[in-house]
Write a structure and sequence with these properties.
By secondary structure, the chain is mostly beta strands. It has one domain. Helices cover about 0% and strands about 35% of the residues. The protein has a four-stranded antiparallel sheet, with no helix packed on it. A four-stranded antiparallel sheet has the order 5-6-7-8, with no helix packed on it.
């Protein structure tokens, strides 16, 4: 991140992000992507919605095993954001999309909605 007034550069930390798995798509102060969680309890391929400057992801939901034999590339399609209501749609390649409504510092999983527009 670059501060436009001072030119100061700050490295961003995105929980569970791996550039080999998916791209990050930004909307305002939020990022949506697929990542890899390495914890024993909640490890695997995860869908992530993270807020800039927050230490913990707003959403981190396990969506598959990792590593996967013969994993497709990319593992997840590019995430899509919708403005109103603010929501992110994350879709693993060959699987159903998941939509997350972003409300303040929390996110709700919206069931049954597989379409999102920009």
């Amino acid at each position: 991140m670059v501060d436009r007034a001072t030119g100061h550069i700050t490295a961003l930390h995105l929980p569970a992000f791996d550039p080999a798995v998916s791209e990050v798509v930004w909307f305002r102060d939020y990022a949506a992507y697929c990542g890899i969680a390495t914890t024993a309890r909640n490890g695997g391929l995860v869908a992530v919605v993270a807020e800039l400057g927050a230490h913990k992801a707003v959403v981190q939901k396990v969506i598959g095993q990792w590593p996967q034999p013969n994993a497709p590339h990319p593992v997840c399609a590019t995430s899509k954001w919708q403005r109103t209501p603010m929501r992110a749609t994350i879709q693993p390649t060959g699987a159903q999309p998941m939509t997350f409504d972003v409300v303040g510092l929390s996110s709700l999983v919206e069931e049954g909605d597989s379409e999102a527009t920009e």
